[in-house]
Design a protein that fits this description.
It is built from 7 helices and 31 strands. By secondary structure, the protein is mainly beta. It has 4 domains: 136 residues, TGF-beta binding (TB) domain (Extracellular Matrix Fibrillin); 184 residues, Extracellular Matrix Fibrillin; 54 residues, Laminin (Ribbon), CATH 2.10.25.10; 34 residues, Ribbon (Laminin). It starts with 7 loop residues before the first strand and ends in a 12-residue tail after the last strand. The structure holds calcium ion (2 copies). One calcium ion binds next to strand 15 and strand 16. GO terms for molecular function: calcium ion binding.
Length: 477
């Protein structure tokens, strides 16, 4: 703070700023003091006789094809233009390029150096024998000098603060997206795709993106089993410039659970959920397809499709196994932006919604193991798998949710659905289910059709020889 004297020292990206407590003051690094701008900042009132006071348009970026439109200000002196951020000065695109710093003509035009303007003669000699004044570039050039950013004036210069993920282009005088993918690949074992303000990582199957969103990992060789189920913040709202807001306070969820219930985005990286009317959403949340094939049993299973990455959702079941819900707290990495916040922060990731999100390696689940200790019937909607518990009921277990299937049904883990057991095809039974009959599977059960010459008996699933002279009868049991 000694560097700034009485002014406030504000740290920013690798440097610092001295900020005077009052708006009408500016910091003078030579005296390390705040000075009233009113003392010195008298707008030059130059007569027409003074050629130096002639006011014309100030241009920037003359290498641009549309340089005629690159007007910084329409009302500047040549010194104001060329000794600050201007590249050329003139009228109606009749541009005189500004002299190059270091050369004689530059030193002549800008005798006090860059960012400093000669005090007009009319103001007389100032009390401290100073003949120059800081140019307030932010005021002179308005939004043109720091497009998409926040301009901050300082003595002999100015700053343009950009949102994270952007840098200030001194030629274009605007905040430009930083291409994170250009020189080094931030995506471990994956492909980097630059986006405005951030970047995305894409993995080639069978690798999938891990919870860091910057690493492609194999499903089968995850070192840390705790990372298999990634639970994180579930956001219920997006506000402003798609910033995540209104977190679910009670607990953290998996991506699937969040998106299929009340969430619109997930995790500290604000990964968007698929649109509720999209096929991705239907697939992820195990919803009936809208094309009429809404029966779970008729639906094709979820497969990893290397040919079509957009269809490569993992079986939703696995992602629904959230870990024990931890206490809610926002990690430090969460980019909680406000509009006025131009600080240096981690880039907010925009996670492509078509990417598989932290899927788990399928593992056999015994639906009747002690994990059912905390048996608890839930509304299907609470289950996070929605229609998945048809012919069963949704229960919360330690790992998340599962379906407790009704008798005659078994859980199909690929479809996260209770499907009918085909008792007739169960080869584990050594004794045929239907004695002297043919087994026929039915929804939730089975039936026996007696073979010709046999009739149903009082015992279920047992056919006995028919009375010899009776006609052939077919009896169902
Ligand atoms: Ca300045
Ligand atoms: Ca970028």
């Amino acid at each position: 703070s000694a560097l700034c004297g009485e002014a406030l020292c504000e740290n920013f990206d690798g440097s610092f700023l001295c900020i005077c407590p009052n708006d009408n003051e500016e910091f003078d690094p030579i005296t390390s003091q705040c000075r009233s701008m009113a003392e010195t900042d008298t707008e030059p009132e130059l007569g027409p006789t003074l050629m130096a006071g002639e006011r014309k348009e100030c241009y920037f970026n003359l290498n641009d094809a549309n340089f005629c439109n690159n007007v910084l200000s329409r009302n500047t002196t040549k010194q104001e233009c060329c000794c600050t951020a201007g590249a050329g000065w003139g009228d109606n695109c009749e541009i005189h390029p500004c002299p190059i710093p270091g050369r004689d003509d530059y030193n002549q035009l800008c005798p006090h150096g860059s960012g400093l303007l000669t005090l007009p003669v009319s103001s007389g000699p100032s009390h401290d024998d100073k003949h120059f004044n800081d140019a307030n570039e932010c005021e002179m050039f308005g939004s043109e000098i720091c497009k998409n950013g926040q301009c901050s004036n300082f003595f002999a210069g100015y700053f343009c603060f950009c949102h994270s993920g952007f840098y200030y282009d001194k030629i274009r005088l605007e905040c430009v997206d930083y291409n994170e993918c250009e020189f080094t690949n931030p995506c471990e074992h994956g492909a980097c795709v630059n986006t405005v303000g951030s970047f995305n990582c894409f993995c080639s199957p069978p690798l999938v993106l891990d919870s860091s969103r910057q690493r492609c990992v194999s499903l089968n060789t995850t070192e840390d089993p705790d990372q298999d189920v990634h639970v994180d913040i579930c956001w219920r709202r997006l506000e402003g410039d798609n910033m995540c807001a209104d977190p679910v306070q009670e607990r953290r969820t998996t991506y699937t659970e969040c998106c299929c219930l009340s969430g619109v985005a997930w995790s500290g990286q604000c990964a968007f959920c698929p649109r509720k009317d999209s096929a991705d959403y239907a697939a992820m949340c195990n919803l009936p397809r809208t094309d009429g094939t809404d029966s779970l049993r008729e639906r094709t299973g979820y497969e990893y499709g290397p040919e079509d990455p957009s269809e490569s959702f993992p079986p939703p079941y696995w992602d629904n196994y959230g870990g024990p819900a931890g206490t809610y707290d926002v990690p430090e990495s969460v980019p909680l932006f406000t509009d006025g916040d131009y600080g240096v922060q981690q880039p907010p990731f925009r996670v492509p919604i078509s990417q598989p999100v932290v899927p788990l390696a399928p593992q056999p689940v015994d639906p009747y193991a002690e994990r059912y200790d905390s048996f608890e019937g839930l509304q299907a909607e609470e289950c996070g798998i929605l229609n998945g518990c048809e012919n069963g009921r949704c229960v919360r277990v330690r790992e998340g949710y599962t379906c407790d299937c009704f008798d005659g049904y078994e859980l199909d883990l690929d479809k996260m659905a209770c499907i009918d057991i085909n008792e007739c095809e169960d080869i584990s039974d050594k004794i045929p289910l239907c004695q002297n009959g043919q087994c026929m599977n039915t929804e939730g059960s089975y039936k026996c059709t007696c073979l010709p010459g046999f009739v149903a008996s009082a015992k279920p699933h047992k056919c006995i020889p028919a009375i010899p002279d009776s006609k052939f009868r077919k009896t169902e049991n």
